[in-house]
Amino acid sequence: MRKSDKKRSSSLLRAPVRVPLKWLAATVALAVVATTGPATADGQGHEPGVEPTPERAPTSEVSWLSFPGGVFAVDPLGHTVRYRACDGDTGRVADPGMRVAAGVASGAVVVGGTAYRYRVPLVGRAEGTLEVIQRHRSPTTLTGVVVTSPQPPTDPIAGARLFPLSGQLARVVADATLNPAGVTVRDLSGRYGDQQIAVNGSLRPKAASVIKLWILVELLRRVDCGQSALDDGVLVTPEDVVGGTGQLQFETFPQVVTLRRLAQYLIKYSDNVAANVLITYLGGFAPVNALIDSMNQRSTILARRMLDSAAAQRGEENYTSPDDVVSLLGAVWDGEILTPASRDLMIGFMREQTLNTKIPAALPPGVPVAHKTGDLPDASHDVGYYLIPGTETAVAFLTAGPMATGDETVRRMARTVYDFLVTPGEGAIEE
Questions:
Q1: pLDDT tens, 395-427?
Q2: Burial class of 17 by CB neighbour count within 10 A (0 to 12, 13 to 18, 19+)
Q3: CA distance 299 to 290
Q4: Model pTM above 0.85
Q5: Are 205 and 381 a contacting pair, CB within 8 Å?
Q6: Three-state DSSP class for residue 127
Q7: What is the 3-state secondary structure (H, E, C) of 41-106?
Q8: What SS3 state is found at 341?
Q9: Which of 7, 72, 95, 423 has the most neighbouring CB atoms within 10 Å?
Q10: How many Å is the maximal CA-CA distance in the chain?
C-alpha cells in the first residue's frame, strides 16, 4: 500500500502536531493548530504504571532505510548504524566518521569483512542508498524509502484538516483522571495527507499483549526471507502451557503446532502460550528487540514472557508507546518491513481479533477494523487499523492505571476518532 505516486516536495519537512499534557485546557484546539513541531508529555515518569521514555534522539534525527529484505538504521547523534536483512545483522555499529550535512547522513563501516557505504536522508519518504561491498563479489546497491518516526505528511494542506482531532482527543485524555493516556493517529489513505497527530504519543506504559505485534512481525520477516515457512511445525509441551488469554492452553500436549496456527492464535485470541512458544522459536528476546532497534523504536522493549510474574517482580517488563505502535503499524501498512503477502496475512489475523470490548465496542456495528488489545490490572490498550474505505487510519490508544476505567478511556478515544473521520464538517470530506 505504498503511495509512491504521491508528490514529494520540501513541504515534507513539516512535522506532525503534538499536544503536551500541560496544555490541556479550554484553548487546546487553538494551541494545536498553532503547533508545528513534536512535543513530549510532561511528568510521565511520575505516573503510576508509566516508565520514563529512555533518552533518544529527536524523531527528526533518526531514520532507517527500507529496502527489499531488510533495513539500514542511522542514528546521526549517536553516530551509529545497523544493517539488518535476510543475510545477516551487524548489530549497532559505531561510525565515528559519519558525515551529516544538508539533512543527509553518509559514511561507511566495515563489519566482518563486508563494507556498508550509505547515504541516508534524515527526512522521511525521501530516497536513500546503501552499497554492500564484499570480497570477490560485485557490489550490491540497495535503494529504498527512508522511514522516520513520525513520517512527514505528503500534503500538509490536506493534513491540516486532521489537526482539530488533536484537540478533541486532548479533552478525552484530560478527563481520564485515573488513567494516564496517550494516543497517536496516522492517516494511511492520503485523505488527510498521511498526517500523523498525537496526544502524549511518547507515554510509556506496560505493553501488555500489544508487544505480540512485534513478535508476529519478526516471525513474518523470517518467512519473507525464506528462513521459516508457516507450515513448519513446532513441538509444544505441557511445560509451555500458561494461563491468561488464549485457546492453546485447553488442548492436549505434547503436540506439534504449525507456525501459521501459532501466529494466528497469537493475535486472534491473544494466546499467551503461542507468544511464549514463538519467543523461544525465534531465539529469545534478542531477535525481537533487534527488530525494534532497527526501526529506531526506542520506547519499546520485550523483556519478559507472558504470565512470567517472577520476571515482573524483578522489574523485567515489556513497554511501548503510542508513537512506537503507529510507527510499526505504518511500516507494515506501507510495505516497508514486510512483503505485501505477509502484511495482508498480519492484518487478516488482526481482523479476526476475538477480544472486542474496546475499539469495536465503541463503533457502530459493522465498521471494519483490524486491531490488537492489551490488558493488565494497571494497563488497558487497543491499537490497529480503521479500515473504512477511503479513510484507512492507524491508531494506538494506550493507558495506564486501573483497567476498568482504562477500558472506558480507550473506548472514548476510539469513538472520538471515528466520529471525526465520518462527520461532515469535522474531518470527513464530502465527495
A1: 999 999 999 999 999 999 999 999 999 986 655
A2: buried
A3: 13
A4: yes
A5: yes
A6: strand
A7: CCCHHHCCCECCCCCCCCHHHCEEEEECCEEEEEECCCCEEEEEECCEECCCEECCCCEEECCEEE
A8: helix
A9: 72
A10: 66
